[in-house]
Amino acid sequence: MDQVMAPLDKEMAQYLDCAASQVTLKSGTTLKADLVILAMGVRPVTKFVGDAGIELTQRGHIKVDEKMQTSDPHVWAVGDAVEVRNSALGDAHTWAVALGGPANRQGRVCADHLAKIPTAGRYRGTIGASVVKVFDLTAANVGVNEKHLRNLDLPYKAVYLHPNQHAGYYPNAEPIHLKLLFEVSSGKIYGAQAVGKDGVEKRIDVISTAMHTGMPANELADLELCYAPPYGSARDPVNFAGMIAGNIMVGLADTLTPLQLNALSTPAVVVDVRESSEISEDGPLPTGAAKVQIVQVPLGELRDAFPGLLKDLESRDVIFSCKTGSRAHVAACMARQLGLPQAKVLSGSLMTAQICQRSQRIDAVPRVRPAEVRPAEKCERELCEAQDILSTVACVLRSAVETMSDGINSKRRKTGVAVESWHGELIADGEVLTRDHSITGEIGRVLRDYPAGTQSLRELVQNADDAGATVVKFLLARPQSIPNNGCGHPSYLHQGFDDYSGWALYAFNDAQFSESDFKAIRNIGKSSKQSDASKTGKSDWKLLIMDPHQRMLLGKDGERAFARRWNFVADASVRGYQGHVAWFGGSEHRCCFSAEFHGTMFRFPLRTAEHARYSDLSKLVWSPERMQEVLQQFQLECEPMLLFLKSVSRVEYWRENENGQLQLAFCAGLQQTPFLALLRDLCTSEGRSLSKSRFGAVGVSAEQAATHWAAVQ
């Protein structure tokens, strides 16, 4: 099965999707593995029962009646091996549910009938309420899932919502991702699923109780539940679910799920009513439908903009979207009042669309058997969701930019990039690198020494200086367009790269990596410079893609890999993916895959809220505005920093203007400040070593540095 938690629908299971690289036994022994398979579940061992003449189902479960009596009147059965009534669907449907609660209730019913108690009841069936804890998350469900309803061809409506588990103004509020399935005409609740950190099982318990009593979905809105800011909201998530269902049932709202949106074959328009700053921070709305156009009109401007939009919208399906769906509902109501009766709401909006995109991407991942190794050129196209390609050293970390980079820098290592140990042979389409243990854990420990500010920018400059670079350039930008080679070849190695094609920080220096540098990054935090400080060099062909979370990158046998490396000069197939190459500071820094690239370029995608949700490293979101503030602070520190460098003499920061053109924001260098050049040359000529201990903090001004220098002469 290609998901965890079979009772959940695939998109809901994505919240629980994680990777494991080792198993710790009860004895304390740790077993490392490339793949950990969870083979949990039960199958009925009932052949002997069938051999005795008792009727079984096709799957081998024991058939029983409401008294738990088998086809043999002298034999009774309870527990995991029996098939009982599916209370979520009705009398015509049965299923087998291996849960302790139903088994205990079956036992009581059976015992009452065996004891001939006059008030002995009948077993009414089960709705399959269950809960599981997965690390710091809780997942719970009740009833049947959407896949089950589709297989039975039953009419239903699915709605998504993402309310907090308690009042938003109370500390530590976290979303509960809730999905409700119901029949529109009757309000019959078929099932519900929820994933979150706290309060998840409480909400599913309430919905389970409602299903047990036959309460229609719209009446969930009327339930009076316990409320205090630490425990819930005045309008509980269950109330919200009932309100949404009620609006749909009486025709006040019509919804479409992101999966239905992606399946549209007719022209449609999605109106995103988020603010521009939200789109920059959280990313655009993902959709896989070719005929869907997305326009952005903030909710506060929608009424004024509507007359101009009406002519373009009235002949097409119109779906409104925001981050969670609440503002989209307001926008859809406004649109209907203004003459657009077909207005719909994208259920769950951005937060649901992003998780649905992940589930659909998993559908596209090829299932690889060891005996079915694909040709090199096919493997290349099946690389799944690394981050993005950086030119010569294409180092991308999945949850990019924590302290600017989520693990690019190591405090004890100055060779460039920190990654995990790898093993693997060089194959035609790239060297496969798999990890021996958790890289994210090691990176996280390194990052504790780095505050979320200019420290990582200074570290990048220091690494470049150690490699002999003379210039370092930074650029905060997002791609304007992604080129295609005109032959139908995709711009990216995989469509998953779209998630990381937004705002990013680029860092360029004019030094290059050597093979020894790549060997030095095998063990994070264990720099080769501890034994040989001269290990820097040149290289002109290496292209490296990293996925520390090991979620999508595939090796030659289908195993999960944390990195792959190519010779982009010799391997012509790599050159077609020009969408992975970006401009930096001018045409002289064009990253070309057909020739040597004279330098090193890093690309750090800014971590959006969606990236942060799945990051094992940090939950800190980096917006372009936040990164801009850090770079402005970095400008104040650049000139004093140059005093303590051996080779770097210029640091530049470039940014996009309103027209999308690059412009130089600041340039700090010895050429701009002759005093600094004289000071460093004087120190070098006299054999002295400029150090932080002689000048105090790096953040001193040039005038202060001169004063201190005079004092030590």
UniProtKB/TrEMBL annotation:
TM region(s), chain numbering: none
InterPro entries xrefs: FAD/NAD-bd_sf, FAD/NAD-binding_dom, FAD/NAD-linked_Rdtase_dimer_sf, HATPase_C_sf, Pyr_nucl-diS_OxRdtase_dimer, Rhodanese-like_dom, Rhodanese-like_dom_sf, SACS/Nov_dom
Domain Rhodanese as annotated: residue spans: 264-358
GO molecular function: Hsp70 protein binding; oxidoreductase activity
Claim: 4Fe-4S is one of the keywords in the record: no
Secretion signal, residue range per the UniProt entry: none
Keyword list, A-Z: FAD, Flavoprotein
Highest rank taxon of the organism: Eukaryota
KW Flavoprotein (keyword) present: yes
Official protein name in the record: Cdr protein
Gene that produces this protein: cdr
